[in-house]
# Entry
Amino acid sequence: MMKKFTFIIILLLLAGVIAGCAADSDAKTIKIGISGTDTRIWDFVKKKAEKEGLKLEIVKYSDYVQPNQALAGGDIDANAFQTISYFNAFKKERNLELSPIGTTIIAPMGIYSEKYDSPDDIPNGAEIAVPSEATNMGRALLLLESAGLLQLKDGFDGNGTLDAIKENPKKLKITTVAAEQTPRVLADVAASVINNGIAVDAGFHPVKDSIKLEDETATPYINIIAARTEDRDREDLKKIVELYQSDDTAELIKKEFDGAQLPTFVPLKDIGE
# Structure
């Protein structure tokens, strides 16, 4: 009788293990899209998520267009690569039902040069490359203005074209290129304005290698985690935001990026949501 009882207990334990394994294999994988190859922060969040029973997959994209298209198309569950300014302009232009679900970092844009050590050294008539997408271009123009190289029209809101330039005292040639191309043209121009993540992927340290970094990053340049509007209240995505917006994640960002990225965890209402 005892042997039979022991055998039944073993069968029940085995059934529990098998059921647990099946549940693990059936657990939904949450796909997070990013732009670029630097996954240090998300690898850290992924490990924390595993302890909470959540499976994360980090999906890398090579530009600033695909992550939003993939999100809208249902290929990923959320993305984390863009400023709220870029996000709002992109979804409005393409009529996408996407929403921010949390804030992450501020990543200052910078002016880089292989030829000059300061914006003041850039000569008359020199060529400067800026990102071609409207919000990134606007941000680049504001940075060039803060560097004393241009003056922009009154009321410029950070979105637009080169028509926003009011005065160009050095007669600089401002050339627009795709954001991912901005580091690659450095050999051919006097300077290039490069987004933070793209600069890091190209091997630059924004604080140490730029000749001018954004002095003070305002609300439009806070980066976000975005999801489809219909999914913004999903509990698993809320948990991912919580794990990202934790003290240990903030400490990792400070340690790993040495000021090149700053943890910025603010309520969504502070970015106009």
